[in-house]
Amino acid sequence: MSQTVDAPELSKGYGESVFKGAIADKYLKAVGMSAADLDDYSWINDSAKADKVAKGLLKWGLDAGASSFCHWFQPMAATFRHGQTGQVQLSTLEYNSDGTPTFELKGKHILFGETDGSSYPNGGMRATHTAGGYLCIDPSSPPFMRDDCIFIPACFVSYDGKALDEKTPLHRAHQAMSKETARLFKHCGFEVKGAVNNIGLEQELFFIPREAYQRRMDLQFTGRTVLGKMPARGQELCDHYMSPINTEAEVYACMKEIQQQCYKLGIPLKTRHREVAPNQYEFAPLFGSVITQTDQNLMVMQIAEEVARKHDLACLLQEKPFAGVNGSGKHNNWSISTLCGAQLLNPGDLTAKSGNPNLFPIVMAALVAGVDEYGDLMRLAIASPGNDFRLGAMEAPPSVISTYLGTQMTAYLKDFSEGNVYEYKPATSPINLGVDIMPIVHAPAEDRNRTSPFPYGGHRFEFRAVGSSQNVSLVNTVLNALTAKKFAEISDRVEAGEDAVAVAQDMLKKHFKVVYNGNGYDPAWPAKADELGITHIDSGVEAIDKFVAEKNMKMFESLGIFDAAECAARRSILLDLYVGTIEMEVGCMIDMINQHAIPSAKAAGIDTAGMAAGVSKLEAALKEMHAASDEYEAAKLARVLRLDTMVEVRKVVDDVEAICPADKWTIATYKELLFVDTGKFK
């Protein structure tokens, strides 16, 4: 019996602003095509079909009042860019021979575009005299409409084919993973055409009162507070997590409107709830293709910022906007399925569809080996500036890159590695509540380990250490790349005469140290991980430097994802982002002390010498950073400035705030910022 119930009035409008499915079919049939033609990406190589798709897009847009279009692309290091994307909106207006206006959109217009590649972060791959940057449509991600513009997802490359964006490498890595999955599975007796990476992103964020936000230079410029005394109440009682959202307050209406706007774009935000910290919330969509889910998450973040403004709120996406309470992450739930639908991380499904019970442990062996060998790349992928405050701070997984598999799978894979080969059949455990009228709860094979950066659970892995503001393209580029590399290594050895099971057993013996089912928050764990030789990189700056480690460049080049120049450029870009972020934060701190904290203290008769001395320290440290010999040295100095000097100066200012009369303190306080649902505190 089907458990679904149709409710046309409630589902009305879903996906109406996305050119796919029934929406696209209506307009494509008018030009002799159908929505099914869009699923065969070869249409981009047929100029006649491209013209027809363009005409269908144009009619769709005009019917909805959209007379502009643009290529929508993802520049590198776009953390502080609204929406984290680039675009030039072009009118489709043209003129007939008699001068009357008409509208035109041709296939060549939607397939390709051109822009200035030198004005985006490029790591030296472009310059003012070599500025060519070229856009091409991504046919796997559907066009969508907002207001009067049609957005066409696109890739962005240089004149010589270097990737200038986040999307192109993700496509390259995904393609490599798909090809190597098919190759490996063929050796294991399971013919498939390829594979797809599916993800689900849990987006955490803060909503704060806009009036208070507008009295915080640091929040407006950098997304986090560089000053601020903790209020009497924080998250001590764990009373915010999943508590009711106040239906009479601004946040509830804001979240509903965000969901409604996303709904029209075909983004089903399945979950909304409060998170651990005051004013912290989460949205999570249904699983989907890594390419479209990444695109959609960028739009979710942009919509959240824009809709918040309408409700007199500000949306904060930065990883650590407030000291003293939890910051925000973006859990990257990650799985792979074959194009025929076999789930690689679901042992029962994979065995049933492949007929080979050994295929699941072979897949798991490859992934365990990949996490161990390329843990530094996983750490690099989450090295956003804001994550330095979260990793290992008892609110996010530690900076040790390990994986949790649960007791049953761990025991099974140990058996498998020692030669005891049998089918893995995870068992559930009944939980009796001790109340006769209650049903029996069946716990899965794995517990939930929230301290692991990469735990397995529910037929997926969850990369829990990803930062909330991040474009997850690099994260999934790395995950797909290490998967492809390890699948390829098994295939290479099989083609050289070895047995796939024996190769997988060897991999597990060499790399099983990376499996850790214990408490990642245990203070003793990092030292133990160091003894075991597991990746442990506290500094985001040092993690970024791993982009040019020889083994990593060799891996990327072997799979056609990055060449050496692209690796070096991205290292440079990420270091510049780190330095630039800290530079802005220090500038805000200096201005806020000079323009607000010191005058407020003087008005209250409080000594300001300590704060003045703090400003001098900040200025000296900033000068030292600017004088560094290269970008890596500058980034290392920036990290010390941020985590030591700024923290020291902040304490001085926060102590002054604690004794300054409220009517004299001109900076919006944590009391005003953190309790939007319970009223204003001054």
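The record above closes out task 2.4. Task 2.5 opens with a second protein, given below.
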Amino acid sequence: MAKAAKKAETKAETTDLRTVFAACVLFRVVNALCVRTFFSADEYWQSVEVAHKLVFGYGHLTWEWSHGLRGYLHPLIFAVPYKIAQTIGLDSTAVTVWSPRIVQAVIAAAGDVHVYKLAHRWFAGAKRKAKDEKSEGAAEPDAAARWALFCSLACWFNFFCAVRTFSNCTEAALTVAALAYWPWTGAASENDDVKNVKRPLSLALAAAACVVRPAAALYWLPMFVEESVKSVSRVRFILKEALPIGAAALAISTCVDRVFYGRWEIVLWNFFRFNALDGGGALYGSHPWHWNLTQGYPAIATVFLPLAAMACRDKKRWAPLAVVGWTVLGYSVPAHKEFRFLLPALAPTLAAAGAQLASFSGRKRVAAVVLILLTQIPAALYLSLRHQSGTVSVMSVLTAAVDAGETHSAGILSLTPCHQHPWTTHVHRPNVGMRFLRCDPPGFGTPKGELDEADKFKADAGAFLRFNFGKGWAKPDGSLADAAAWRDILGVDQVGWDRGIPKPGDIEPNLHRKDAVKARNAALKVPSHVVMFDGVYALDGVAEWLRSWGFFKTADLRHADVPVDREIQFRVWVFSRPDTDPDHFEIAAVAEETGMTWEQAEKATMRLREATKRRDREETMTHEERLALHEQMARERKEKEEKRAAELKRRSEEAAAAAAKAADPDAIIADRRRKEEEERLRVEENERRKLLGEDDRPDEELTPQERLDRMIRQAAANIERAEAAAAKEAEGKKDEL
């Protein structure tokens, strides 16, 4: 009987957790669709960009991937939906943009559920509050879990960050799941039975978190040491659980990296050596040792932090504060610090804050909930929908330009600080050139002692653009550049280009093929679209270079209401230029080689191109399709020949008639007399109509007085017609009576 009751209770708990998980997935999917702002470059460049390159074969790998500092297990999570979409032929831009977010939403929902479970284990040990008990005290067994879930869903930083494709977000979900199964000392005894304590599972989840992000070892090392010292079965824990699970995780990670790197790489060691021993993390900024304590964690935990402290004090459960404390202190050791690094420490705080809400009386709980909503919702919505949105929304502008066929030559150039917006995942076109300002550290892609591309551009933007892309030849007013300017720029003798677009009439007969090729190659080096922040335009030489190539502004997007770090400004601008039509270069070369006129060379080039397209099309056809195509071509050829023959016959007849008329003087004299008579009759008719008031000459041929007389006559005629119609209508009504 007891077993049946326990089985029914377990089944009810499982059903409850499934319902909670489904609700959390729905919430996080909506959350993922709402987040449309930029936070940090790693969201794209260390996860989905890598997955995109793995599946589709193009994209960009940052310098970390060249030096074995990142593991491939995390990007593989997002490579799965990409591969499925590619297999079924649905790999559109919308899929490459949103499918990783949906996957991450499910991962975040799993983290929310385990915050629920963690609060249940830590704070559901007290008995149910009596009905007549009016003072604050212990909560109902599941109340702490439910309110912890509320805190997790309401937390502004979870809404803003948890659904992004950072490795930190996956690490946080794995960490809270591991915490929910860890054998805690002092956890609620009635909830800490065998079904809740799953130490091997907890170790496996913790190992996975360390594989996804090696810095998670700072989180788990103190708990591992504590369990090794306090556990009754410490030998079993170390030799039969921790070491085998850790070794398996390391082996799996290393083998996966071996497959994709093509060489053996121990990413955990590489990561530790670069960040801890070489101090490489400071390359992206350093903070005071106390930043996590005084700014980082208070900013993301906000009102939940004092609630959690109250819960731990009142219920004598110190595990949440211990986990948060050693995590914040551990992450204070490296010089480089970020808000997202502290995401795994947020779950214990939320679990404890939920327990405190559950123990509040009615009015105090309402006040606390109102305070939470007022502090969390505005921050979540503003940061997720508005702040730093320009660098994300600009990708939609670029994608639309690509779909409209407006990109050409070198494609898209980003002059923003490096990695400030998504890349190929948000364009998803293999045939579009894309370039940005590289910022590889010295010795990791940039030679030691030299500046990276971003710093070179910042130092002298105009010189950087002229050196890499050349100087254009369009004048500011759009007129043709003179011959001297052309020779200085490209070293050619003939000039005929306006904004980089050659015109048939401007190309001289002696234009050499090498000059046409050189002109075309110069234009191909230059991008068709340039993305920059508004402040970049003011840098020395940028505006001049844009004008020299005929660029004009096509988009002006709001980015931020207040400036943030790393030279990020308020607005994002997009510039584009007209296409340099390759047909003109090809026609010019054909005309020079064959001696044809421009019109002849143009027709020959187009015929050759059509024949090439037809040949390429025929190579993919079946025999029946090829026969049908040839029959259609024969019919079209016959119709064209018949039309040509009829046109030639008509022209020959007209020519013969004209020749015969030209050979007969009497016919010429008669034709002249006939035309003179027609002109005399026309003039007489105009005079007659003028006398009768029926002048039908156009207004342009009348004098002002004649136009006024015409208007008066027309008005009088209209009045007469109106009076006649009214009289007729009155007479008709009289007859009816």
